[in-house]
Write a structure and sequence with these properties.
By secondary structure, the chain is mainly beta. The protein contains 1 helix and 10 strands; from the N terminus they run αββββββββββ. The chain folds into 2 domains: 31 residues; 106 residues, Cupredoxins -  blue copper proteins (Immunoglobulin-like, Sandwich), CATH 2.60.40. The structure holds copper (II) ion.
Amino acid sequence: MSLTNRSPMASDWIAVGAGLALVRRRRHADHGTGPQVRRIRVKGGYQPAEVHVAAGRPVRLIFCREETIRCSEHVVFPDYGISITLPPFEHVLVELPAGEPGEHAFTCEMQVLRGTLVIGGRRAQPAASSNPQALLTRTS
Ligand SMILES: [Cu+2]
């Protein structure tokens, strides 16, 4: 989201002020220790297919499946041992624990659709994960 995407407001002054406040709040959150939220659109693939998060902080992935074809009905995280049903046109929240630097694949059941959760930088070695527990919540 950028200033240019904001809808026009009555006064330019107000628009600029609100934009700065938004940016500041966002930057603050990125430096915190709370969960990192990433949205993934599911439509003919995962968008984005590569999701980047920092190490050492919990991760919240919100999947929005915008199609009804069966291929994308489930998303599987082999490293976390979870398979999640994605009802069409709903938001499904997947909470993952804070992780070590590494990469974790997520795919559809047939492994046609593929995505990667990249924790803590691109070229990190896959983490020797200690079988983290994942928590699933469905929102709508
Ligand atoms: Cu599939």
